[in-house]
Amino acid sequence: MRKRLKNFLPDHAAIHDNRWLRPFASTLLHPRLWHLNRHSAAGAVAVGLFCGLIPGPLQMLGAAVFCVLFRVNLPLALITTLYSNPLTIVPLYVLAFGLGKLALGDGEAEFTAPPDLEGLAFANWIPALTDWMASLGKPLALGLVLLAALLSVSGYVAVKWTWRVWLIRQWRKRQAKGRQP
């Protein structure tokens, strides 16, 4: 499984050769940030799923900071943040709003539709989306934290379980090969 994942992930030489990241090379080139095992992969998926709900373009920066703090696989966490994108962000926010509304017990809070970005210039998208998120208030804020935590824990458990099942199957195949004459 590790060999398959390594085909998709960049190596640490890309960080070393990047002139913008060179000042942070001592931190970003820590071996545990690039090592891939079931513990670092599960932690990276958890970090990526949690940071994927950070509003705006700060998702990958947040994931990188958490990877350095928790010493989990950096490239996998960065890739995992991509689950929230322009196609999925509105359904995720609707779900987060519902979770927050349920947790607060606020039956009066109403979800308002996101702004129509079609006629706006690209530079005006972020203020329009920020105003929309602010209008949703406490249910959205609490719901985002709850949804991020829920996704993070479920992703961690799913990766640990999947990796373990894969290892057991591989071990059983080796055992079966060893028994054959």
TrEMBL record:
Keywords: Membrane, Transmembrane, Transmembrane helix
Transport in keyword set: no
InterPro entries: DUF2062 (IPR018639)
Record keyword Heme present: no
Superkingdom to which the source organism belongs: Bacteria
Transmembrane segments: 41-70, 82-104, 140-163
Pfam family, any one: DUF2062
Segments forming domain DUF2062: 21-172
Protein name: DUF2062 domain-containing protein
